[in-house]
Design brief:
This protein is mainly alpha-helical and 86 residues long. The chain has four helices and no strands. Helices cover 70% and strands 0% of the residues. The longest helix has 30 residues.
Amino acid sequence: MQNAPGVSMVQAMLPRNLGMALGLMNGVSFGAGSALVAGIGLAVATFGAAASLEGASVAPLVAALSYLIVRDRVPALQIPQASATL
Protein backbone atom coordinates (compact mmCIF):
# COMPACT_ATOMS: atom_id res chain seq x y z
CA MET A 1 0.00 0.00 0.00
CA GLN A 2 1.31 3.40 -0.93
CA ASN A 3 1.09 6.12 1.70
CA ALA A 4 3.11 9.13 2.80
CA PRO A 5 5.16 7.36 5.50
CA GLY A 6 5.99 4.54 3.11
CA VAL A 7 7.06 6.93 0.37
CA SER A 8 9.22 8.95 2.77
CA MET A 9 10.80 5.72 4.04
CA VAL A 10 11.71 4.63 0.52
CA GLN A 11 12.98 8.11 -0.33
CA ALA A 12 15.18 8.01 2.77
CA MET A 13 16.62 4.73 1.49
CA LEU A 14 17.33 6.34 -1.92
CA PRO A 15 18.21 9.97 -1.08
CA ARG A 16 19.88 10.68 -4.43
CA ASN A 17 17.02 9.26 -6.49
CA LEU A 18 13.82 10.64 -4.98
CA GLY A 19 11.87 10.45 -8.23
CA MET A 20 12.89 6.86 -8.83
CA ALA A 21 11.86 5.98 -5.27
CA LEU A 22 8.39 7.43 -5.87
CA GLY A 23 8.15 5.65 -9.22
CA LEU A 24 9.08 2.35 -7.62
CA MET A 25 6.46 2.84 -4.93
CA ASN A 26 3.78 3.62 -7.53
CA GLY A 27 4.74 0.68 -9.72
CA VAL A 28 4.97 -1.83 -6.91
CA SER A 29 1.76 -0.70 -5.21
CA PHE A 30 -0.34 -0.72 -8.40
CA GLY A 31 1.17 -4.00 -9.57
CA ALA A 32 0.74 -5.73 -6.22
CA GLY A 33 -2.78 -4.37 -5.86
CA SER A 34 -3.78 -5.68 -9.27
CA ALA A 35 -2.27 -9.09 -8.60
CA LEU A 36 -3.92 -9.34 -5.19
CA VAL A 37 -7.35 -8.41 -6.58
CA ALA A 38 -7.01 -11.22 -9.10
CA GLY A 39 -5.83 -13.56 -6.33
CA ILE A 40 -8.78 -12.69 -4.10
CA GLY A 41 -11.14 -13.28 -7.03
CA LEU A 42 -9.61 -16.69 -7.63
CA ALA A 43 -9.85 -17.51 -3.91
CA VAL A 44 -13.52 -16.45 -3.82
CA ALA A 45 -14.27 -18.71 -6.79
CA THR A 46 -12.43 -21.60 -5.13
CA PHE A 47 -13.12 -21.30 -1.38
CA GLY A 48 -16.08 -18.90 -1.10
CA ALA A 49 -16.36 -15.30 -0.04
CA ALA A 50 -16.21 -15.73 3.75
CA ALA A 51 -13.08 -17.87 3.77
CA SER A 52 -11.37 -15.62 1.23
CA LEU A 53 -12.08 -12.45 3.20
CA GLU A 54 -10.87 -14.10 6.40
CA GLY A 55 -7.66 -14.98 4.60
CA ALA A 56 -7.30 -11.44 3.29
CA SER A 57 -7.66 -10.07 6.82
CA VAL A 58 -4.05 -11.09 7.56
CA ALA A 59 -2.79 -8.41 5.15
CA PRO A 60 -2.31 -5.78 7.90
CA LEU A 61 -0.26 -8.30 9.89
CA VAL A 62 1.94 -8.98 6.87
CA ALA A 63 2.38 -5.22 6.37
CA ALA A 64 3.38 -4.73 10.02
CA LEU A 65 5.88 -7.59 9.86
CA SER A 66 7.41 -6.21 6.67
CA TYR A 67 7.82 -2.83 8.39
CA LEU A 68 9.69 -4.51 11.24
CA ILE A 69 12.09 -6.03 8.72
CA VAL A 70 12.67 -2.78 6.81
CA ARG A 71 12.79 -0.26 9.67
CA ASP A 72 16.41 -1.02 10.59
CA ARG A 73 17.54 -0.35 7.02
CA VAL A 74 16.12 3.17 6.87
CA PRO A 75 18.74 5.75 7.82
CA ALA A 76 17.82 8.34 10.42
CA LEU A 77 16.57 11.51 8.76
CA GLN A 78 18.58 14.64 9.48
CA ILE A 79 16.06 17.45 9.94
CA PRO A 80 17.67 20.89 9.78
CA GLN A 81 16.92 23.13 12.74
CA ALA A 82 15.25 26.45 11.99
CA SER A 83 17.10 29.51 13.22
CA ALA A 84 15.34 31.52 15.89
CA THR A 85 16.10 34.96 14.48
CA LEU A 86 13.27 37.43 14.49
